[in-house]
Write a structure and sequence with these properties.
This protein has about 80 residues and is mainly β. The chain contains no helices and 6 strands. It is globular and about 30 Å long.
């Protein structure tokens, strides 16, 4: 069976305890419909990161990342096969 990946690109200025935190989730490539895609993100400081894939009904398919990352630019590979 095939899974449909609903991809959302976000860039949030987030305020926690009156401190503004900026992070960015880049558009994945080559495109969201290829079985293999790279997801890029940027962090302003050491952060807990969770990237999960859900099907169109909201069911969890796979947790790609659930770890702590240093500040900077990062990318992870997702293969849906």
């Amino acid at each position: 069976s095939s899974s449909y990946i609903n991809y959302l690109t976000t860039a949030y200025p987030l305020k926690i305890n009156a401190i503004e935190i900026d992070f960015q989730l880049e558009q994945n490539y080559p495109n969201p419909f290829n079985p293999n895609t790279i997801i890029g993100f940027q962090l302003p400081k050491l952060s807990q990161v969770n990237i999960s894939i859900f099907d169109i009904r909201g069911r969890l398919i796979e947790i790609i990342v659930d770890d702590i990352y240093e500040s900077g630019i990062h990318s992870v590979n997702f293969n849906s096969e």
